[in-house]
Fold this protein.
Amino acid sequence: MIANDTIHTIITRRSTRSFTDEQIKEDELQSVLEAGLYAPSAINQQAWHFTVIQNKELLNWLNEHAKETAKTFDNEHIRAMAHNEKLHIFYGAPTVILVSGKEDATSIESDCAAANQNMLLAAESIGLGSCWVNLILFLFQHPDAKKYMQELGIPAGYRPICSVALGYKKVNTVNTPARKPNRINYIR
Ligand SMILES: Cc1cc2nc3c(=O)[nH]c(=O)nc-3n(C[C@H](O)[C@H](O)[C@H](O)COP(=O)(O)O)c2cc1C
């Protein structure tokens, strides 16, 4: 197998779920965003919008309200998670990038996921911790979701698809979940 820095970053990246309070540097943020913007997208529509949130009060508000909405869900697992007072959906990360997709574009879930993953890998490559967080999406199931999206500056016609929590790692996660076997077949 070939070993290089890119493959090493891909293989060693893990979700970080414990962050220090220290805000990331502006050039780190810009590098991560740039990596997101250079993701592939269906017919190059680049149908994404990034909302960078670095306001602690707002991050706490998003956490509380996403969990409040999740408490009303039918799914027992989701309700249990929402009632877990110790869970902060962003794990104390000082920066969150919410990725929204343009609703009339071809493949917004794939486009936004590609951007999200690029940002996770860029973060890892420059020593930041990151976690893909979709729990935030519960917030946008709330009856007031349209108002929340406007307040967050998400352009009309876009909807939130995924997010990345970013910061400095408090704990370095080294446990790599085992890869499931038999996930590849070859036709040669
Ligand atoms: C679509 C998607 C949604 C996810 N949402 C969350 C989430 O809301 N909270 C969380 O802690 N992790 C979330 N994750 C991270 C996964 O739990 C994590 O990637 C998985 O357990 C494998 O661990 P690793 O990232 O360390 O390899 C999400 C990952 C994906 C791809």
Remarks:
- The chain is about 35% helix and 15% strand.
